[in-house]
Design a protein that fits this description.
The complex is a heterodimer of chains A (about 290) and B (about 90). Chain A is of the alpha/beta class. Chain A has a single domain, classed as Rossmann fold (3-Layer(aba) Sandwich), CATH 3.40.50.970. Chain A has eleven helices and eight strands. Chain A has an eight-stranded mixed β-sheet, sandwiched between helices. In chain B, a hairpin with a 2-residue loop joins β2 and β3. Chain B has about 90 residues and is α+β, with helices and mostly antiparallel strands. The chains are: A alpha/beta (about 290), B alpha+beta (about 90).
Chain lengths: ~290, ~90
């Protein structure tokens, strides 16, 4: 792992993330690849807090805090400004949570993707509105506890398939990645950097606070998510070409669920139901990958 | 009293969050057994707080910032890192 990844760091210690935060790792791996010539756009998300209280900042590259729904539009604007200045080297990175991608910022993102604006859009997915206190988002998986989907009424709808929605915009590159596999994540960021157009990365980043899991186990959870087929690693080029990057080990989904307190209320039938849904989605993905 | 404001809310010296010594958040302290370490650097890559220090193949932990999440101890393939409760 260490041989392929650059060791120059762009995040200072002393940031305000909870112990064991996956979002910090996601940002760290990405900035290690993108380097100094990067402008980061952050909408309201956990990262607005992680960066530090004003006037302190943990990120050593230019970073722009913006409103919840505007990450993609601000990134488009910054890229246009850089173009006018004749700067073609600088990469614009929009770094939004799942709330700002799946729900609130989706209209701006869809518009930017349709115009094929030249920036990398990263969604770090912790599967709820964690910063405001664990409220349900459309990224929350079926059966999960949040404060707005309590144990008696857990979420009854599946997670939105955002990567396929983004791929349907026929953007040049869309991929899923996981903080448990930094090599794969770095390779995808490197690939995205070399492509012109809107690049979308969906990064699975566990949240020990909101998922009621042990902070030491987040990497294990992220790894299990890949191998239980809950979060397969794949990429889509130009909207049609699907590649699966990692063959899952077919671990039962129960192993993934039992590490998280947000799934503690599930009965055997519920777990069987989730297993069935996961298998169906995987079959669906396999069909598209063969296509 | 005259207060000074930063124009436009711009932070010029970014990376200045180092003044926050987040080590005070810690309940469990990671301790490395150097003799068991195989220098794989997994702890370095998986640390969310950049507190694992590598200098010429020697590993150390920056306790000023370590929040004690325990990822390094959990991911260490040789179990060379143990979590010990902080003493007051």
């Amino acid at each position: 792992m260490s041989s392929t990844m650059p060791m120059q760091e762009y995040i200072s210690p002393g940031h305000m993330a909870c112990p064991g935060c996956g979002a910090v790792l996601a940002m760290r791996y990405i900035l290690n690849v993108l380097g100094e010539k990067t402008v980061v756009v952050i909408p309201a998300s956990c990262w607005s807090v992680i960066d530090g209280v004003f006037p302190y900042s943990a990120v050593r590259v230019p970073l722009f805090h913006t409103a919840f729904e505007t990450a993609a539009s601000v990134a488009s604007g910054i890229k246009a400004g850089l173009d006018i200045q004749g700067d073609t080297e600088t990469t614009v990175l929009a770094f939004a949570g799942d709330g700002a991608t799946f729900d609130i910022g989706f209209q701006a993102l869809s518009g930017a993707a349709e115009r094929n604006e030249d920036f990398i859009y990263v969604c770090y997915d912790n599967e709820a509105y964690m910063n405001t206190g664990v409220q349900r988002s459309s990224a929350t998986p079926y059966g999960a506890w949040t404060t707005t989907t309590p144990v008696r009424h857990p979420k009854d709808r599946p997670k939105k398939r955002i990567l396929e929605i983004m791929a349907a915009h026929e953007i040049p590159y869309a991929a899923t990645a996981s903080i448990a596999y930094p090599d794969d994540l770095s390779a995808k960021v490197k690939k995205a950097k070399g492509i012109y157009g809107t690049k979308f990365l969906h990064i699975f980043s566990p949240c020990p606070t909101g998922w009621k899991s042990k902070s030491s186990q987040i990497i294990k959870i992220a790894r299990l998510a890949v191998h239980t087929k809950v979060f397969p690693l794949y990429e889509v080029e130009n909207g049609f070409t699907f590649h699966i990057n990692m063959e899952p080990k077919n671990i039962p989904v129960r192993e993934y669920l039992k590490l998280q307190g947000r799934f503690a209320h599930l009965s055997e039938e519920d777990i069987a139901d989730i297993q069935r849904q996961v298998d169906e989605e995987w079959e669906h993905l396999l069909k598209r990958a063969l296509y | 009293m005259k207060r000074e404001y930063i124009r436009g809310g711009v932070i010029h010296n970014s990376g200045n969050s180092v003044i926050f010594k987040t080590g005070g958040w810690r309940v469990f302290r990671p301790v490395i057994d150097q003799s068991m370490c195989n220098r794989c650097k997994l702890c370095y890559w998986y640390c969310p707080d950049n507190t694992i220090i590598w200098e010429e193949d020697n590993v150390g932990i920056n306790y000023e910032y370590c929040k004690g999440c325990g990822i390094c101890a959990h991911e260490c393939p040789k179990s060379a890192i143990q979590m010990e409760r902080e003493k007051l």
